[in-house]
Amino acid sequence: MKGLYIHIPFCEYICHYCDFVKRVPKNKEMIDEYLKALVKEINQYKDHFDSIETIYIGGGTPSMLDSEQLVFLLSHLQDIKPIEYSIEVNPESYTKQKGEIFKRYGINRVSLGVQTFNQELLHYLNRGHTNDQVFDVVNHLKDIGIKLISVDLIYAIPKQTFDDLYLDLKMIDQLDISHVSCYSLILEEKTYFYHQYMKGNFKQVDEDIEATMYKIVMDELKKQGFEHYEISNFAKDGHYSFHNMIYWTLGEYIGVGLGAHGFINGKRTYNERALSKYLDHFIKEETVQTKEMLIQDELIFGLRKLSGVNIKEIEEKYKINLFETYPNLQEKIDLGLVEIDHDYLKLTKQGLFLGNQVFMVFI
Known about the structure:
Structural class: alpha/beta
Number of strands: 15
Strand content: 15-25%
Low-confidence stretches: none
Number of helices: 16
Shape: globular
Mean pLDDT: 96
Oligomer: single chain
Largest sheet: 9 strands, mixed
Radius of gyration: 21 Å
């Protein structure tokens, strides 16, 4: 599969944990100017349009675009006929009119930024929606025929209790959706939380509590009928995120927009992160991937999937012996973090909690 990632960097406010490329726009004209440049960049890849099977519009907050701006962007993507067409939405910036625009232009999957259903914790994260808005968005999307709905959750938030997490997962059950992405809160540089941490005003959740919360997530979502198919992702009835599967299987994808990354024709592309530079020339650098880089990425990303990676396929593709190339891998097997199952190398249940220790073998 080949994917197209489109980055919308604008937000109405900045979440305290977010380190993605984003900014609060000065005015509507700033967004309009950006979208014109974005469409120009997209059109540079017209030769790939027939082979693109997934589109993912992320951010930032794509749903903060007004109806006119959404139509402008989506109308320029009509020559692409993806199997999966996703957009990220914040509940408070969704309207029924925007949902109907999504439907009209072929969007068939929505990723909803919920994070938690505890209003105090939401405020702590600097999020601006209510639980009622979440249910209203999901119900309207279903009403207009957009059935593939994913919700983002965050756990291991300071002051979050196990009861808070159980409530979040109970609400997921009530939403009756097909996909959940669930991540622990990671302290990233250049975020509000990181600045507070440097001042001594932010304390990360204890690792044992974080691990217990992860287990609660896995257990509760399994009870609800979700398949745990990637470290942080759960799906019902095989409704995986096919766009993200491209990343995890080292497939090709085009990245357009401010700060976007791509992987196409054996090269990693990195776009400018500063708006003034992006408006001038889009791409900051391209890096040809060496054999060693490709093997490393394929193993690290591939092991994120619970199905793991096929050892024979890796060895034939790259003409290597896996255990000769990475002799420390055996140690991780002996520690019970990795196992071989029908020629697949995969993380064990214990390895899911300590994946980074395994990934370091390949770096």
